Amino acid sequence: MLQPMSLIIVIDPGHGGENEGGKTDNYTEKELTLKVAEAMKAQLEKYDDVKVYLTRDSDADVAIADRLSFANEVHADFYVSLHFNMSVEHDIYGFEVWLPSRSDLYNRAYPFAALIHEDYTSGTFDLFPRGIKTRLGNNGDYYGVIRHGTEYGIPAVIVEHAHMDQANDNWIIPPDNLDQSLYVLGVRDAENLAKAFHLTSTALGRDYSNLETPVGTASGIIAPDETPPEFCRISLLETNAEEETIRLLLEAEDKDSFITYYKISTDGGETWSELFGYSRTAWNHSEPSMEITLKVPADRDLDVIAVVMNSFDKASESNHLSVSAFGLPEPEETGEEEEAEEVSEAAGPEKDTESSETDEDETAVIASADEKTERSTGENSFPEAEKGASEGETGSVFRVPDLYQELDLSKTGELLDTASSNDLFYAGTFAAIALLFLILILTVFGVIIGRRAERRRRRKRAGTAGSGRAYDRRETVRPDKRMTSGRRNDATDWNDEDVGPDADDWL
Ligand SMILES: [Zn+2]
Fold first, then answer.
1. Region of residue 446 (phi > 0: left; psi between -120 and 50: alpha; otherwise: beta)
2. What distance in angstroms lies between residue 161's CA and the mean position of ligand 1's atoms?
3. What residue ranges do the domains of the chain occupy?
4. Ion ligand 1 residues within 5 Å by Cβ
5. CATH code for 7-224?
6. CATH 2.60.40.650 fits 231-323, yes or no
7. pLDDT tens digits, residue range 473-490?
8. Of 206-215, 329-338, 367-376, 492-501, where does mean pLDDT reach its minimum?
């Protein structure tokens, strides 16, 4: 009996047995990969003329060479190794697909990798794209599954779905809804594979046979990008003393790949922001420049640097941009200063005493400003970043932070609305600090009035102290811990919206 030629797919759930893969408090990679693989197999088997194998269907430690020789035995047309990622510094996030460096195999794998990139960055399923890549070792391809696959002439790919150690990715695999989210990933992987190989499904009523899919056109050996971005420059567009913000232009270019992330320091590189997505119009195309608004302490000099990274995680540092203090002290201080100048000529020997008092106060301001800088560049300061991108902008910008919004007091109302225990705690803390601050203002005001009265009496005493310190304390009460609530919202969005559109795939 003549049977139609079947497409033979081998799905490889990465790791297994004692080889657990990555592990965090919430995830063990070998368990995640098996669940995604089972869902992917079940979905693929709904398509006509396709035969699907798993390299393991239990918690077994199978050697990589054995996995590929098995694929060879069953005459696999395509081999997909499923993984989840982690990074050394726990700062990287997003997904990526690794391909064989030999161009004939690369081109056969490319449509699937490109479809995954288009799919994972679409709509509310907004994972951060890290690209389609190759990696070379001493004996050809660096990764064993790809190298062994190449030996057998089988295009083998590695899909790194998300970073288990990064909150920016964890929303796609929420620990409290893990099985379902892994199932969705497996179904999506299967659909992308079905599209890449132009399959049809009588059972699902789907026909991808005439679907236009991305085409791989590489030749020779596809080498990875070994060089960092060629160009990275930061310049000042605007300072805003009232809002205490600076607007920056970040320009970056990498001819071999594309820019993925950037980070910013305002203290010459001592402390850094987390990694933010550089502006892109498509998953593989970075813009020549982007604007960044940064909340900063306006009363001190800044040494701003940016670092940009390409899709191979090679980094380049920008120029140093000096931004002089552009915020002025409180208006009332002007009066004090004028008064001080008026009397300084007559003050004589007492002037020295007054200056040293002023110095002390300046130190206090700087110390406090340091605290603020830490917060505005530290890890917890840009919570809205990924939320903005996943909810709003139609894919043109990946997770661009709105630093100013983050620290905006007008958002307190929103914070209360979410009514979680954390938020209420912060709101309560904020109210208490505000009350203390009010008392402090009144006290400082009283001291100033008292001093003025005394100065008038003595006519030879002057002071500029006080107001600068009060100004600074006002700044420090701004709530800045929205990160948790932002990410929690993301998880909710995913549950409510993203599973919905997929429902017909898996119900
Ligand atoms: Zn892995």
1. alpha
2. 10
3. 7-224, 231-323, 331-490
4. 14, 21, 83
5. 3.40.630.40
6. yes
7. 222 222 222 222 223 222
8. 492-501
